[in-house]
Task: structure prediction
Amino acid sequence: MEARLRETLLAVAGAMASARDSWWIIASTAAVLHGADTNVSDVDLLVSPRDGEALLARLGPTGGPTPSDRFRSDLFGRWDGLPLPVDIMAGFHALGSAGWQPIWPATRVAIPLGDTRLFVPEIPELVAHCRLFGRPKDIVRAAILQRLGNEADMRPRTA
Result:
């Protein structure tokens, strides 16, 4: 893992240590944490409204959301000052063929990083997110994740 991503993720894990609700890293960073070889330009952090409000209050003023016709969040803040920016989102929705759909994962996998853990959705759920997001980079990422998931299914299991 690239050093600047690792440093950013360790800061996120530290900031989320006091979270009261479940939280997830999603999108490209979640794919990397599952083992995908893909580019990461920022970290997408999905939180509950109360954890998001508490985190943004601790961080101070943050950047507002960039207007988008495909994504929206009820609460959004950008955490700058780390090697990579972190987009903090609560009430995140993506526009798909069935209209605006909430993104609140049903699965949660702990990925170790140093002495801490980061949480991501399982691969099949990430694939579904990527397909819903629908941008060319997301479709490529979905295919990479699908292959990783298939390879994991073929590994021998131990009891």
